[in-house]
Amino acid sequence: QSVLTQPPSASGTPGQRVTISCSGSSSNIGGNAVNWYQQLPGTAPKLLIYTNNQRPSGVPDRFSGSKSGTSASLAISGLQSEDETDYYCAAWDDSLNGVIFGGGTKLTVL
Amino acid sequence: EVQLVESGGGLVQPGGSLKLSCAASGFTFSGSAMHWVRQASGKGLEWVGRIGSKANSYATTYAASVKGRFTISRDDSKNTAYLQMNSLKTEDTAVYYCTRRYCSGGNCYSDYWGQGTLVTVSS
Asked: In chain A, fewer beta carbons within 10 Å around the N or the C end?
């Protein structure tokens, strides 16, 4: 069971905006930054959003992140078929003294 | 170009040992913390542990699920991190990734990942 809670699935149609939530607690999201990773099938995870809302070079501005209290969200606007894959949130947990991941959300583009 | 290349995966019997390597290039390895993350087939990501840089006294921390069985080390002269896995269990079967941990302004994240190496624990 993951310490960070994500919906197992999400969906949207091309061009639509979708959001993926990530819920934690005061020992992780409440006190530390949230990062998001995108994992295409059969490949290693790729950093998508870091420090709550920052995009690495090369990540389209269709992807955005936010954090409030003990929850965070990943938003994808202008949904494209290539966005159909798995997304994970992650944060440092002060109680566990380690990184914790959400269970992952499989995004389907209808 | 940053590269992380894992090796050493394979088939091992329950109770056995295996040592994974992560060869790094394209960045100042000695100044970077390195983490290991694993993923069982069809499952999510699970953090395994980390080793800090020399500046952080090569501090290590581990997930509860592997503490006492796994050991992370590094050789800065070879730009390589290691994951020694002992007393392996079937539930340790997974793809193991090494990642570079980058920190800025007190916030840290895994910005580069290796391609992963598969460890299968089975009799």
From this structure: N
